[in-house]
Write a structure and sequence with these properties.
The chain has about 210 residues and is mainly alpha-helical.
Amino acid sequence: MAGDHKHNDPLPETVLRVKSLESLLIEKGLVEAAALDALVDRYETKVGPKNGAKVIARAWADVDFKQRLLTDGSAAIAEFGFSGGQGEELVAVENTEAIHNVVVCTLCSCYPWPVLGLPPVWYKSAPYRSRVVREPRKVLAEFGTTLPETTEVRVWDSTAETRYLVVPRRPPGTDGMTEDDLALLVTRDSMIGVSVALTPAQAREI
């Protein structure tokens, strides 16, 4: 479920349909390729997980900001200029030693675009949407996340009104790191809750 598409593997049917539709729209002159590229770039790099990583890094480094984020997520991300586009009612939930949070949208694919960008394919898939509610620990393990039995797993169901952002635990060995360096440890999956943040050593390997 969590694996990325390999370069030599056949493209999934949904991807093929999207590419066919894109080619048709461009061929008929209804959209420009450059406009599509700009839109994708906007959500992958500017409105994407990099925004969320900045928010999490600030929460790790600034206790007062973290409190504001947990109290009113929408207002806190607005301090960065992130708002709108399915981020109007954002609730931040913090992972701790005792509690691990994971997010799903059981009805469709509601997702906080301003801080996470476009939702990954697996987030929208029926197996994830149904299984993470019934057997969250098993699904997390499939993403490589194994938690102690003493850690409570809480599943948050996003809706059209409310989106959730997980504040992952700050990795050990990060004292003294700048916010820019801390942001490199934050992944999209850790802000959904299916994984944990990277250690500095893991980040250096990427």
